[in-house]
Specification:
heterodimer, A: mainly beta, seven-stranded mixed β-sheet, four-stranded antiparallel β-sheet, 11 strands, B: six-stranded mixed β-sheet, three-stranded antiparallel β-sheet, 9 strands, about 45% strand, globular
Chain lengths: ~120, ~110
């Protein structure tokens, strides 16, 4: 079964850091680009970051550029998102998502995890 | 990275057809055949319904179809069913590895 399982969410104070992880299984992780997409409470979807199959292409939304870092570990079939200098507006459910393509030139995101919740509040 | 524009809500009766529009710019929707559509039921993760503008993933009903004209993409659902009631999002590749979503459209089946 193709599966993505996120972890690492929680309550964090503004300005602090948090690291999200995503464990992938059921598909050849190295063959596909991966993304993080978030959804603030009661709001729409927002693309956060994407990484190509070999980490050669990485992109970020302007809202997180310079604060978030995406990475992947092929040995562990895992995706990570290091989030620094967190702000209240980063509060959201963060989804780990598989692309249909190997590159960040996305052909559509066909597998979604159930998400991990990040709450930034003092 | 401005969000794509979708109507806030659309509605239709069972059996009817509805169309949801998704308007972008010449930098995203208008430049690439890389629009996707996602269905999200309350409390659930989104589901890919259309990719690359017009293509349906395996398992998605052929009642769902996508199209594009200029800077506007559209999702058409024919033969509306109660289970189609959900929130729908479009997305488009926007160059340099980035992606942009629409604000979402609530579909109500009357």
């Amino acid at each position: 079964e193709v599966q993505l399982v996120e972890s690492g969410g929680g309550l964090v104070q503004p300005g602090r850091s948090l690291r999200l992880s995503c464990a992938a299984s059921g598909f050849t992780f190295d063959d596909y680009a991966m993304h993080w997409v978030r959804q603030a409470p009661g709001k729409g979807l927002e693309w956060v970051s994407g990484i190509s199959w070999n980490s050669g292409s990485i992109a970020y939304a302007d809202s997180v550029k310079g604060r978030f870092t995406i990475s992947r570990d092929s040995a562990k079939n895992s995706l990570s998102l290091q989030m620094n200098s967190l702000r209240a507006e980063d509060t959201a459910l963060y989804y780990c998502v598989k692309d249909r393509n190997y590159d960040t030139l996305t052909y559509g995101m066909d597998v979604w995890g159930q998400g991990t919740t990040v709450t930034v509040s003092s | 990275q401005s969000a794509l524009t979708q109507p806030a809500s659309v509605s239709g009766s069972p059996g009817q057809s509805i169309t949801i529009s998704c308007t972008g710019t010449s930098s995203d929707v208008g430049s690439y055949e890389l629009v996707s559509w996602y269905q999200q039921h309350p409390g659930k993760a989104p589901k890919l319904m259309i990719h690359e503008g017009t293509r349906r993933p395996s398992g998605v009903s052929d009642r769902f179809s996508g199209s594009k004209s200029g800077n506007t993409a559209s999702l058409t659902i024919s033969g509306l069913q109660a289970e189609d009631e959900a929130r729908y999002y479009c997305s488009s590749y926007a160059g340099r590895g980035t992606l942009v979503f629409g604000g979402g459209t609530n579909l109500t089946v009357l």
